[in-house]
Design a protein that fits this description.
Distance between the termini: 29 Å
Strand content: 25-35%
Number of strands: 17
Number of domains: 3
CATH architecture of the largest domain: Sandwich
Order of helices and strands: HEHEEEHEEEEEEEHHHEEEEHEHHEH
Number of helices: 10
Radius of gyration: 25 Å
Structural class: alpha+beta
Helix content: 10-25%
CATH class of the largest domain: Mainly Beta
Length: 375
């Protein structure tokens, strides 16, 4: 991906702060999907898809799976399909165009097809997104920064902003990318039929992180551990009073327990959790070829932390310990590259067993330029 600024400047000045237009970010870009591919996927029960349109001025929304007749409605309308990278290798490979960002923050690639004049209305999201124009033209109207206090219209489960006053407008051609950080209101309108790839980065909620961290500590904290009064025992207080010193002493006790018993595993577990796999029936364990290259299948979320004597591996929300000697193969697989199965068995047997037992591997040949669907 060609950025109009240095990657260092993008990360320091734009990432999660302000939008950035990247004209010609992907040179000579050719969409890996056709509208027919996307419509075919939207007809599958396992795919998460929506149709959005306006009727008599009101926004309407319908969830898939769809039938062919659903795509015959009067335009303008937009078809959106989530997690398309989990189905098409060519879409999954779009992740390689992104700047050097934490891989475990990446969520999915949503693909949309819109007829002339269609869009999903003015709205804002709570994640970072790179909007890659696939085919045709789309006009993006960007508005002010929004938050939970911004008034929204809950119309057919669509949380739209009204009124919406755009501050900037961009017209994207195939290969152009528009980066939009969390909270920035935006509205894309098709200029003729077009397809857009939305590469999204989602952050875990602080509430989820805190809950997981505290749960880990509680599992290790002895029930006999009691709050000690310490220096507050010598302080004078009125009958029944809890003073600021008492509160501070209790906070210190909790913080000390968390710091002492924190196993540092909660972040890796939370950021690699998945909602389940659509690949299970298509690629059972015994479908792996005996010889050849293997790679992570698209549903797998893998992250790791290097320790002094081991590697903490996080796979789809679970934790595993590996020897440091296996780390190079972990890094190779995390980069999206394939590894020879025999080499993996010989040099990283623990890693192979963990991935195999969790259905996280697929033969390279079985992922070549294909989806789960016969379009």
């Amino acid at each position: 991906m060609i950025l109009p600024v240095s990657e260092a400047r993008f990360l320091s000045e734009y990432w999660q702060q302000k939008p950035l237009l990247c004209p010609g970010a992907v040179a000579n870009f050719q969409s890996p999907l056709t509208p027919e591919h996307l419509a075919g996927l939207a007809m599958e029960p396992e795919a998460e898809s929506r149709l959005i349109w306006q009727s008599n001025g009101a926004w309407q929304q319908q969830s898939g799976p769809f039938q062919e007749d659903d795509f015959q409605k009067e335009p303008p309308w937009t078809l959106l399909v989530q997690r398309v990278d989990h189905w098409f290798r060519g879409v999954a490979e779009l992740k390689s165009i992104l700047p050097a960002l934490p891989q475990w923050r990446f969520d999915d690639v949503m693909v949309s097809y819109a007829t002339d004049g269609a869009g999903v209305g003015p709205h804002f999201d709570q994640y970072d997104v790179f909007l890659l124009q696939g085919t045709g033209q789309r006009e993006w109207r960007l508005g002010p920064l929004c938050d939970k206090s911004t008034p929204q219209l809950s119309e057919n489960e669509l949380n739209l902003i009204s009124p919406f006053e755009p501050e900037r407008t961009f017209i994207l051609e195939p290969g152009d990318v528009l980066y939009v950080p969390p909270g920035i209101s935006h509205w894309g309108v098709a200029r003729g039929p077009c397809m857009t790839y939305s590469l999204g980065f989602r952050a875990p909620s602080v509430a989820d992180l805190l809950a997981r961290r505290v749960d880990h500590v509680l599992e290790r904290l002895s029930k006999s551990a009691l709050l000690e009064d310490g220096y507050t025992a010598t302080l004078s207080a009125r009958p029944g009073e809890i003073t600021a010193a008492h509160l501070a002493n209790a906070k210190d006790a909790m913080h000390n327990a968390i710091d002492a018993l924190d196993d540092q595993l909660w972040l890796g577990e939370v950021v690699t959790e998945t909602a389940g796999s659509v690949w299970d029936d298509e690629y059972p364990h015994n479908a792996l070829r005996e010889k050849g290259l293997v790679k992570l299948h698209a549903e797998t979320k893998l992250a790791w932390t290097e320790q002094t004597h081991q590697v903490d591996l996080f796979l789809n929300g679970t934790h595993h310990r590996l020897s440091l000697s296996e780390l190079p193969h972990v890094i190779t697989l995390c980069s999206g590259k394939p590894v020879d199965r025999a080499l993996l068995l010989r040099e990283a047997g623990e890693l192979y067993d963990v991935l195999f037992d969790n259905g996280a591997l697929i033969s390279e040949e079985d992922s070549e330029s294909r989806s789960m669907l016969d379009h």
